DNA sequence: CTGAAAGCGCTTACAG
DNA sequence: CTGAAAGCGCTTACAG
């Protein structure tokens, strides 16, 4: 439509050089207050906006963070994936970064391309599993990267996740405190374990450990895949282990469906069965009041992920960071 | 790490000019087969990738699509939002575009900035409601834009959505065919209607229309907001209208919870209550087999959205497009 | 069929 | 405190 205004237009209108305008833009203190003020006014008058491509070419920085979706996520995609992306890009914006979603199946290839073409300054790897090839790719490229997940090795990359070990231990202490001697861990599906997702592995391993330490009889139930009916699976688990007095649910779809599934079968929570569930506090509409729960906070995680990546971009040589956010156990609210 | 290779390096190594390399890159037929072949080989050898910023500066095209999240989505965010973004960016990639997520609360401001700084070639507006300010903003900017949603007016913008009117009519014909004289429409929450979201309005209006045409007694139930317990709301609706023999559920969280909620109350589907639900075929883990349902396909929608936007970018003067995808009604599978 | 050159809109040493 | 100028890595008329 109307002609696009460039830095030259501003310079001319303000009666200064392009360099001066550029310095004003970057708040360089060498420019006098009056000049800066004058330039800023003409910028507003003309409605100037910096050309992103030109700046990127000149500075060799794109000011874009690449959000890399998991390779081969298969059919399973958390309902909170969208919220994650939303929040990440929100916090990125607050730090002056745009965010680009990199989602094709050939995750690593897409990463190489995005990096080689200077499209991004850094990567956020979503839902990283053990030995995730995206980590080695990031390493080879040598680009600032933060891993969202808890792989056994992060290959020298910064890491952010919920502290599943600590949360698991806390769940078990709660079980002991409430005098439960035999419990069920309703865990993630076998296909999640097969993918070696850290959140599933780390949580389960700590539960096993704590069960031993506390002398609690533990049964682990893990559905075969994520397509089966979680309500039926939950009841099946109860049927298999009739002496269990409590259950820990660490599984998204099961957490959502569980209150209904139990009430449908006339199981009173917490009288017939004491239940602890782990789910994001953003899971609102699902009614879980009679459960105790570990309330992970996606918002805090997103904020931490972005700040970690931004810090890494600013100082590539800073020591590696491993941030585990430890969310507390909430007791059920009676209603 | 290792020095980044530019078009000059390729030109030198291949013994041609930069211009020639550039022409090879764009498959210009003026370059001889042999030269092109030679250049392509050195490109591979050197591992050259075009610098995105340089190209964008030169061509004034960013090759990026901006996905604009709804302004003030409030607490409600569909569980499929993430899948949507994922699929959109997948199809964008297939068409040679990257996708940038634009999500801040000041949606329109963010749009202006993204456009002014030449960061995007076009916009996809997610979940557009009637009189959505993003539409007028897109118009003022004069940038290729496709509206995902069914607003009353699209302000001259291309539009893609599921065909809610047609689907609603089909649901009602099914009701009539099954001889239901009195039914309940369990609809979206009042806050969704207050936002004037087209999918809720258009569907409801057609249901009302069809009810009149077919002589069916219709009760519309709409929860106050999206935080309330959908299971309780569903039962409340049944309680209010005890003579209804069927229900149409057009509400995401209610669709998910409904099978459990009904079974918990001993309501047999379809014997006690005939139910038609509308939900994406990507909603897998939730068990809905005893419902009839309109199976919208997020994948097809995403594909259509991207192809529409790409076409618009290529030909800004082509006639305006309005694509309504009409998904069929599936009868329940007995199991 | 190929190349020299201008230009895209910025930033940043370097002079003054 | 400010400006002239080079350079970032491409593309694209324009010559030849």
UniProtKB/TrEMBL annotation, chains A, B:
Pfam families: LacI, Peripla_BP_3. SMART domains: HTH_LACI (SM00354). It comes from the Bacteria. Residues 5-59 form the HTH lacI-type domain. The keyword Transcription applies. Keywords: DNA-binding, Transcription, Transcription regulation. One of its GO terms (molecular function) is DNA binding. InterPro entries: HTH_LacI (IPR000843), LacI/GalR-like_sensor (IPR046335), Lambda_DNA-bd_dom_sf (IPR010982), Peripla_BP_I (IPR028082). This is LacI family DNA-binding transcriptional regulator. It comes from Bifidobacterium choladohabitans. The lineage of its organism: Bacteria, Bacillati, Actinomycetota, Actinomycetes, Bifidobacteriales.
């Amino acid at each position: 439509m109307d002609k696009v205004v460039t830095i030259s237009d501003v310079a001319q209108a303000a009666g200064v050089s392009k360099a001066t305008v550029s310095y004003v833009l970057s708040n360089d203190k060498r420019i006098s207050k009056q000049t800066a003020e004058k330039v800023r006014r003409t910028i507003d008058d003309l409605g100037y906006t910096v050309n992103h491509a030109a700046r990127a070419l000149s500075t060799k920085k794109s000011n874009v963070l690449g959000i890399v979706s998991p390779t081969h996520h298969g059919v399973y995609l958390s309902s909170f994936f969208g919220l994650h992306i939303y929040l990440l890009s929100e916090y990125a914006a607050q730090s002056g970064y745009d965010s680009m979603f990199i989602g094709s199946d050939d995750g690593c290839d897409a990463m190489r391309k995005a990096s080689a073409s200077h499209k991004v300054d850094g990567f956020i790897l979503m839902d990283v599993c053990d030995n995730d090839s995206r980590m080695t790719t990031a390493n080879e490229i040598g680009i600032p990267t933060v891993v969202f997940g808890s792989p056994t090795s992060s290959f020298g990359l910064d890491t952010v996740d919920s502290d599943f070990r600590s949360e698991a231990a806390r769940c078990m202490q709660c079980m002991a405190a409430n005098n439960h001697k035999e419990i069920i861990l309703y865990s993630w599906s076998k296909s999640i374990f097969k993918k070696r997702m850290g959140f599933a592995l780390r949580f389960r391993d700590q539960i096993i450990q704590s069960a031993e330490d506390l002398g609690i009889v533990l049964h682990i139930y893990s559905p075969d895949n994520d397509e089966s009916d979680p309500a039926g699976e939950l009841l099946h688990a109860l049927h298999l282990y009739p002496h269990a007095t409590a259950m820990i649910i660490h599984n998204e779809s099961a957490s959502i469906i569980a209150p209904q599934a139990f009430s449908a079968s006339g199981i009173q929570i917490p009288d017939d069965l004491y239940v602890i569930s782990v789910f994001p506090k953003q899971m609102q509409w699902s009614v879980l009041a009679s459960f105790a729960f570990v309330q992970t906070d996606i918002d805090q995680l997103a904020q931490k992920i972005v700040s970690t990546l931004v810090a890494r971009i600013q100082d590539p040589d800073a020591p590696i960071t491993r941030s585990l956010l430890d969310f507390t156990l909430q007791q059920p609210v009676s209603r």
